[in-house]
Amino acid sequence: MSTLAPEAPLSVLLREGTRAEHQDAESEGFVSRLMSGGLDVAAYADLAAQQLVVYRALEEASAVVRRDVRGATLVFDELTRVPAIERDLAHLYGPSWRSEVRTLPATRAYVERLRAVGTRLPEYAAHAYTRYLGDLSGGQIVQRMMQRHYGMGDAGLEFYDFPQIPKTKPFKDVYRERLDGLALDAVGVAAAVAEAQEAFRLNRAVFVELGEAHPGTAG
Ligand code: HEM
Protein backbone atom coordinates (compact mmCIF):
# COMPACT_ATOMS: atom_id res chain seq x y z
CA MET A 1 0.00 0.00 0.00
CA SER A 2 1.15 3.49 -0.74
CA THR A 3 1.95 5.65 2.26
CA LEU A 4 2.39 8.81 0.22
CA ALA A 5 0.72 12.01 1.34
CA PRO A 6 -2.04 13.15 -1.01
CA GLU A 7 -0.04 16.38 -1.51
CA ALA A 8 2.75 14.42 -3.25
CA PRO A 9 3.21 15.34 -6.92
CA LEU A 10 0.62 13.77 -9.23
CA SER A 11 3.31 11.97 -11.23
CA VAL A 12 4.52 10.25 -8.06
CA LEU A 13 1.00 9.40 -6.92
CA LEU A 14 0.23 7.91 -10.33
CA ARG A 15 3.37 5.80 -10.34
CA GLU A 16 2.97 4.57 -6.77
CA GLY A 17 -0.79 4.21 -7.09
CA THR A 18 -0.48 1.88 -10.10
CA ARG A 19 2.55 -0.15 -9.06
CA ALA A 20 0.50 -3.25 -8.24
CA GLU A 21 -1.65 -2.87 -11.38
CA HIS A 22 1.50 -2.50 -13.48
CA GLN A 23 2.87 -5.69 -12.02
CA ASP A 24 -0.40 -7.49 -12.81
CA ALA A 25 -0.54 -6.19 -16.39
CA GLU A 26 3.12 -6.94 -17.05
CA SER A 27 2.86 -10.50 -15.77
CA GLU A 28 -0.40 -11.36 -17.54
CA GLY A 29 0.00 -14.65 -19.43
CA PHE A 30 -0.44 -13.22 -22.91
CA VAL A 31 2.19 -10.54 -22.26
CA SER A 32 4.77 -12.89 -20.80
CA ARG A 33 4.22 -15.48 -23.57
CA LEU A 34 4.49 -12.82 -26.25
CA MET A 35 7.61 -11.36 -24.66
CA SER A 36 9.35 -14.73 -24.27
CA GLY A 37 8.82 -15.96 -27.82
CA GLY A 38 5.95 -18.37 -27.08
CA LEU A 39 3.53 -16.75 -29.54
CA ASP A 40 3.79 -15.49 -33.11
CA VAL A 41 3.51 -12.38 -35.27
CA ALA A 42 -0.24 -12.97 -35.63
CA ALA A 43 -0.63 -12.53 -31.87
CA TYR A 44 1.31 -9.28 -31.99
CA ALA A 45 -0.81 -8.14 -34.97
CA ASP A 46 -3.98 -8.81 -32.97
CA LEU A 47 -2.59 -6.68 -30.13
CA ALA A 48 -1.80 -3.90 -32.60
CA ALA A 49 -5.37 -4.05 -33.91
CA GLN A 50 -6.70 -3.53 -30.37
CA GLN A 51 -4.27 -0.67 -29.83
CA LEU A 52 -5.54 1.13 -32.92
CA VAL A 53 -9.08 1.28 -31.55
CA VAL A 54 -7.87 2.40 -28.12
CA TYR A 55 -5.57 5.11 -29.48
CA ARG A 56 -8.25 6.43 -31.81
CA ALA A 57 -10.42 7.04 -28.77
CA LEU A 58 -7.53 8.40 -26.68
CA GLU A 59 -6.38 10.76 -29.41
CA GLU A 60 -9.94 11.94 -30.05
CA ALA A 61 -9.97 12.85 -26.37
CA SER A 62 -6.61 14.63 -26.79
CA ALA A 63 -8.12 16.80 -29.53
CA VAL A 64 -10.87 17.91 -27.15
CA VAL A 65 -8.68 18.29 -24.07
CA ARG A 66 -6.13 20.47 -25.83
CA ARG A 67 -8.75 23.21 -26.28
CA ASP A 68 -8.43 23.77 -22.54
CA VAL A 69 -5.37 25.77 -21.39
CA ARG A 70 -4.32 23.22 -18.80
CA GLY A 71 -5.26 20.27 -20.99
CA ALA A 72 -3.12 21.63 -23.82
CA THR A 73 0.00 21.24 -21.66
CA LEU A 74 -0.49 17.46 -21.72
CA VAL A 75 -1.04 16.99 -25.46
CA PHE A 76 2.08 16.46 -27.57
CA ASP A 77 1.88 15.92 -31.32
CA GLU A 78 5.05 13.82 -31.12
CA LEU A 79 3.15 11.22 -29.08
CA THR A 80 0.38 10.71 -31.66
CA ARG A 81 0.21 6.97 -32.40
CA VAL A 82 -2.73 6.36 -34.73
CA PRO A 83 -0.88 6.89 -38.07
CA ALA A 84 2.01 4.63 -36.95
CA ILE A 85 -0.38 1.88 -35.86
CA GLU A 86 -2.21 2.10 -39.19
CA ARG A 87 1.09 1.63 -41.04
CA ASP A 88 1.95 -1.29 -38.77
CA LEU A 89 -1.39 -2.95 -39.50
CA ALA A 90 -0.96 -2.45 -43.25
CA HIS A 91 2.37 -4.23 -42.95
CA LEU A 92 1.13 -6.98 -40.64
CA TYR A 93 -2.18 -7.81 -42.35
CA GLY A 94 -1.59 -6.47 -45.85
CA PRO A 95 -3.52 -3.88 -47.84
CA SER A 96 -6.95 -5.21 -46.84
CA TRP A 97 -6.15 -4.86 -43.13
CA ARG A 98 -9.23 -2.75 -42.44
CA SER A 99 -11.53 -5.67 -43.22
CA GLU A 100 -9.34 -8.23 -41.44
CA VAL A 101 -8.93 -6.74 -37.99
CA ARG A 102 -11.53 -7.37 -35.29
CA THR A 103 -12.18 -5.58 -32.03
CA LEU A 104 -12.37 -7.67 -28.87
CA PRO A 105 -15.14 -7.06 -26.30
CA ALA A 106 -12.56 -5.90 -23.71
CA THR A 107 -11.23 -3.38 -26.22
CA ARG A 108 -14.74 -2.08 -26.77
CA ALA A 109 -15.16 -1.71 -23.01
CA TYR A 110 -11.88 0.24 -22.81
CA VAL A 111 -13.03 2.56 -25.59
CA GLU A 112 -16.42 3.05 -23.96
CA ARG A 113 -14.67 4.13 -20.78
CA LEU A 114 -12.47 6.57 -22.72
CA ARG A 115 -15.52 8.02 -24.46
CA ALA A 116 -17.38 8.33 -21.17
CA VAL A 117 -14.72 10.08 -19.07
CA GLY A 118 -11.67 10.68 -21.26
CA THR A 119 -12.20 14.37 -21.90
CA ARG A 120 -12.30 15.32 -18.21
CA LEU A 121 -8.87 16.58 -17.26
CA PRO A 122 -8.02 14.21 -14.35
CA GLU A 123 -9.30 11.20 -16.25
CA TYR A 124 -7.57 12.23 -19.46
CA ALA A 125 -4.32 12.66 -17.54
CA ALA A 126 -4.74 9.16 -16.11
CA HIS A 127 -5.38 7.48 -19.46
CA ALA A 128 -2.72 9.40 -21.35
CA TYR A 129 -0.17 8.73 -18.58
CA THR A 130 -0.95 5.01 -18.56
CA ARG A 131 -0.52 4.60 -22.29
CA TYR A 132 2.11 7.10 -23.36
CA LEU A 133 4.54 6.74 -20.46
CA GLY A 134 4.11 3.00 -20.81
CA ASP A 135 4.91 3.12 -24.53
CA LEU A 136 7.99 5.21 -23.77
CA SER A 137 9.08 2.75 -21.05
CA GLY A 138 8.20 -0.94 -21.28
CA GLY A 139 7.07 -0.42 -24.88
CA GLN A 140 10.68 -0.04 -25.89
CA ILE A 141 11.40 -3.46 -24.38
CA VAL A 142 8.41 -4.96 -26.21
CA GLN A 143 9.79 -3.70 -29.53
CA ARG A 144 13.16 -5.36 -28.90
CA MET A 145 11.55 -8.65 -27.87
CA MET A 146 9.36 -8.74 -30.99
CA GLN A 147 12.48 -8.27 -33.10
CA ARG A 148 14.43 -10.86 -31.18
CA HIS A 149 11.80 -13.62 -31.05
CA TYR A 150 9.76 -13.18 -34.20
CA GLY A 151 12.29 -11.94 -36.73
CA MET A 152 10.51 -8.63 -37.16
CA GLY A 153 12.43 -5.63 -38.44
CA ASP A 154 11.30 -2.04 -38.03
CA ALA A 155 8.23 -2.51 -40.23
CA GLY A 156 5.19 -3.45 -38.18
CA LEU A 157 6.71 -1.96 -35.03
CA GLU A 158 6.48 1.75 -35.79
CA PHE A 159 4.12 2.06 -32.85
CA TYR A 160 7.16 1.96 -30.56
CA ASP A 161 9.13 4.51 -32.57
CA PHE A 162 8.88 8.12 -31.57
CA PRO A 163 11.01 9.82 -34.23
CA GLN A 164 10.58 13.24 -32.65
CA ILE A 165 11.57 11.94 -29.20
CA PRO A 166 15.19 10.84 -29.58
CA LYS A 167 15.68 10.33 -25.84
CA THR A 168 12.77 9.04 -23.82
CA LYS A 169 14.13 9.91 -20.35
CA PRO A 170 14.11 13.71 -20.68
CA PHE A 171 10.75 13.58 -22.44
CA LYS A 172 9.22 11.48 -19.67
CA ASP A 173 10.61 13.97 -17.14
CA VAL A 174 8.89 16.83 -18.99
CA TYR A 175 5.67 14.81 -19.14
CA ARG A 176 5.78 14.24 -15.39
CA GLU A 177 6.38 17.97 -14.83
CA ARG A 178 3.31 18.69 -16.94
CA LEU A 179 1.24 16.24 -14.88
CA ASP A 180 2.44 17.93 -11.70
CA GLY A 181 1.75 21.36 -13.20
CA LEU A 182 -1.94 20.58 -13.74
CA ALA A 183 -2.43 21.62 -10.11
CA LEU A 184 -5.47 19.37 -9.65
CA ASP A 185 -7.35 19.75 -6.40
CA ALA A 186 -7.64 16.82 -3.98
CA VAL A 187 -10.79 15.53 -5.68
CA GLY A 188 -9.10 15.70 -9.08
CA VAL A 189 -5.98 13.94 -7.83
CA ALA A 190 -8.04 11.13 -6.33
CA ALA A 191 -10.02 10.81 -9.57
CA ALA A 192 -6.81 10.69 -11.63
CA VAL A 193 -5.19 7.98 -9.51
CA ALA A 194 -8.36 5.87 -9.44
CA GLU A 195 -8.76 6.24 -13.19
CA ALA A 196 -5.15 5.25 -13.85
CA GLN A 197 -5.76 2.07 -11.85
CA GLU A 198 -8.85 1.51 -13.98
CA ALA A 199 -6.83 2.14 -17.16
CA PHE A 200 -4.35 -0.56 -16.17
CA ARG A 201 -7.22 -2.96 -15.45
CA LEU A 202 -8.76 -2.21 -18.84
CA ASN A 203 -5.43 -2.95 -20.52
CA ARG A 204 -5.12 -6.16 -18.58
CA ALA A 205 -8.61 -7.26 -19.60
CA VAL A 206 -7.59 -6.86 -23.26
CA PHE A 207 -4.54 -9.06 -22.59
CA VAL A 208 -6.76 -11.71 -21.00
CA GLU A 209 -8.93 -11.89 -24.13
CA LEU A 210 -5.88 -11.85 -26.39
CA GLY A 211 -4.52 -14.73 -24.29
CA GLU A 212 -7.68 -16.74 -24.90
CA ALA A 213 -7.40 -16.09 -28.64
CA HIS A 214 -3.67 -16.91 -28.71
CA PRO A 215 -2.96 -19.64 -26.19
CA GLY A 216 0.40 -20.50 -27.77
CA THR A 217 2.10 -23.87 -27.66
CA ALA A 218 2.06 -24.07 -23.85
CA GLY A 219 -1.77 -23.93 -23.99
C1 HEM B 1 5.73 -6.12 -21.49
C2 HEM B 1 5.25 -5.64 -20.42
C3 HEM B 1 5.84 -4.44 -19.72
C4 HEM B 1 7.13 -4.22 -19.38
C5 HEM B 1 8.32 -5.11 -19.60
C6 HEM B 1 7.16 -2.92 -18.75
C7 HEM B 1 8.28 -2.33 -18.23
C8 HEM B 1 8.36 -1.08 -17.69
C9 HEM B 1 9.54 -0.47 -17.14
C10 HEM B 1 10.91 -1.12 -17.11
C11 HEM B 1 9.21 0.75 -16.71
C12 HEM B 1 10.12 1.76 -15.99
C13 HEM B 1 10.79 2.67 -17.00
C14 HEM B 1 11.48 3.86 -16.36
O1 HEM B 1 11.77 3.84 -15.16
O2 HEM B 1 11.70 4.81 -17.08
C15 HEM B 1 7.81 0.93 -16.98
C16 HEM B 1 7.11 2.06 -16.71
C17 HEM B 1 5.79 2.23 -17.02
N1 HEM B 1 4.94 1.31 -17.60
FE1 HEM B 1 5.39 -0.55 -18.09
N2 HEM B 1 5.91 -2.41 -18.73
C18 HEM B 1 5.08 -3.30 -19.32
C19 HEM B 1 3.74 -3.19 -19.51
C20 HEM B 1 3.03 -2.04 -19.28
C21 HEM B 1 1.62 -1.89 -19.54
C22 HEM B 1 0.72 -2.96 -20.11
C23 HEM B 1 1.30 -0.63 -19.18
C24 HEM B 1 -0.02 0.07 -19.27
C25 HEM B 1 -0.85 -0.08 -20.24
C26 HEM B 1 2.50 0.02 -18.70
C27 HEM B 1 2.59 1.31 -18.26
C28 HEM B 1 3.72 1.88 -17.73
C29 HEM B 1 3.77 3.24 -17.22
C30 HEM B 1 2.62 4.23 -17.15
C31 HEM B 1 5.07 3.46 -16.78
C32 HEM B 1 5.64 4.74 -16.18
C33 HEM B 1 5.75 4.61 -14.68
C34 HEM B 1 6.20 5.95 -14.10
O3 HEM B 1 7.39 6.19 -14.10
O4 HEM B 1 5.34 6.71 -13.67
N3 HEM B 1 3.52 -0.88 -18.76
N4 HEM B 1 7.31 -0.20 -17.57
Structure in words:
This protein is mainly alpha-helical and 219 residues long. It has one domain (10-213): Heme Oxygenase, Chain A. The chain has helices at 10-17, 19-26, 29-35, 41-65, 69-72, 82-93, 97-100, 105-117, 121-135, 138-150, 168-180, 186-213. Helix 2 runs parallel beside helix 12 (186-213), helix 4 (41-65) packs parallel to helix 8 (105-117) and helix 4 (41-65) packs antiparallel against helix 9 (121-135). The longest helix is centred in the last third of the chain and has 28 residues, at 186-213. The model has no long low-confidence stretch (mean pLDDT 96).
Give the arrangement of secondary structure elements.
Blueprint: H1 10-17, H2 19-26, H3 29-35, H4 41-65, H5 69-72, H6 82-93, H7 97-100, H8 105-117, H9 121-135, H10 138-150, H11 168-180, H12 186-213
Helix pairs in contact: 1-12, 2-12, 4-6, 4-8, 4-9, 4-12, 8-12, 9-12
The protein binds protoporphyrin IX containing FE.
The site of protoporphyrin IX containing FE has 18 residues, from helix 1, helix 2, helix 3, helix 9 and helix 10.
Features:
single chain, 219 residues, mainly alpha, Heme Oxygenase, Chain A, 12 helices, globular, binds protoporphyrin IX containing FE
CATH superfamily: Heme oxygenase-like
Q: How is the main sheet built?
A: none
Query: From N to C, what is the helix and strand string?
Result: HHHHHHHHHHHH
Beta fraction of the residues? under 5%
Which distinct ligands sit in these coordinates? protoporphyrin IX containing FE
User: How many structurally independent domains?
Assistant: 1
Strand runs, count = 0
The secondary-structure class comes to: mainly alpha
